[in-house]
Automatic annotation (TrEMBL):
Entry annotated with the keyword Hydrolase: yes
UniProt xrefs under InterPro entries: FL_hydrolase_MqnB (IPR019963), Nucleoside_phosphorylase_d (IPR000845), Nucleoside_phosphorylase_sf (IPR035994)
Name of the molecule in the record: Futalosine hydrolase
Originating organism: Sphingobacterium chuzhouense
Occurrences of domain Nucleoside phosphorylase (ranges): 30-200
Top-rank taxon: Bacteria
Pfam families: PNP_UDP_1
PANTHER family attached to this UniProt entry: 5'-METHYLTHIOADENOSINE/S-ADENOSYLHOMOCYSTEINE NUCLEOSIDASE, FUTALOSINE HYDROLASE
C-alpha cells in the first residue's frame, strides 16, 4: 500500500522526518489553508500513485474539559461557513444546490484503526477568537469539535481522487479568545508524532 503523510507545515511532522525517510514513506507539506492544501495535494497526486493519505496536524478544540496534547481521529470535517448569508440566516451550500460542506474519512476496508478519541472537524479560513463567535459554535455543534485550516480540503481531494484517507490531530489549544500563553504546541507536536510513528509501524507489521 502506497502511503502519503500530509501536513500543512514541516514543524508539525519534523520529529518524524527521519523515521519517514528511513522507512521510505513519502510526506507532503502543503502550506497553510484550504487553497494551499487542495493545490499541493492535487498536484502531487497527478504525479504519484497513492493508496492511503494520512493527514496530520494540530488543532483547537471547543471542549474546555479536553486534555491539551491529546490525539483525535477526525471522522468528518466541514468547510465552515460555505453557503450564503440571508439577512443573518445561514443557508448551507447544500440548500443552494451548489455542492456540499461535509466530507468524511475513508479508511481502507478491514484496517485496524488506532484506539483514539473521535471528533468532528471544522475547517476555517479565520480561526475563531471572538467570544460571540465561539458561543455560536457552542450552540450549533456537539462536542468534541476540532478546528483546523486544512482538514476538509484533504478529505475533499481524497474523495475526488477516490483514494483512502484518514485524519488525525493533536490538540494544541482551546477554541477561545486568543491566548498564546495557554497553547501547548510543543506537547501536541510531540504526541502527534509519537502517535504517527506507532501507527505507521503497526501498518507495516500488518502488511
Amino acid at each position: 500500500m502506497q502511503i502519503l503523510v500530509v501536513a500543512a507545515t514541516i514543524e508539525e511532522i519534523d520529529p518524524s522526518r527521519s523515521f519517514l525517510e528511513d522507512s521510505s514513506i513519502p510526506y507532503l507539506i502543503t502550506g497553510v489553508g484550504m487553497v494551499a492544501t487542495t493545490y499541493a495535494l492535487t498536484r502531487h497526486l497527478q504525479k504519484h500513485n497513492v493508496d492511503l493519505l494520512i493527514h496530520v496536524g494540530i488543532g483547537g478544540i471547543l471542549d474546555q474539559s479536553a486534555c491539551l496534547g491529546e490525539v483525535y481521529q477526525i471522522c468528518a470535517d466541514e468547510i465552515f461557513g460555505l453557503g450564503a448569508d440571508d439577512n443573518g440566516l445561514f443557508i448551507p451550500i447544500e440548500e443552494l444546490g451548489f455542492g456540499k460542506r461535509i466530507y468524511a474519512e475513508n479508511p481502507p476496508v478491514n484496517m485496524q484503526l488506532p484506539q483514539v478519541n473521535k471528533a468532528k472537524g471544522i475547517t476555517v479560513n479565520n480561526v475563531h477568537g471572538a467570544t460571540d463567535a465561539i458561543i455560536r459554535l457552542q450552540q450549533h455543534y456537539k462536542k468534541p469539535l476540532i478546528e483546523s485550516m486544512e482538514g476538509a480540503a484533504a478529505f475533499f481531494v481524497a474523495e475526488q481522487e477516490k483514494i483512502y484517507c484518514l485524519q488525525f490531530r493533536a490538540i494544541s489549544n482551546y477554541i477561545e479568545p486568543r491566548n498564546r500563553d495557554a497553547w501547548k504546541i510543543g506537547l501536541a507536536i510531540k504526541n502527534l508524532n509519537d502517535f504517527l510513528k506507532e501507527f505507521l509501524e503497526s501498518l507495516n507489521r500488518s502488511c
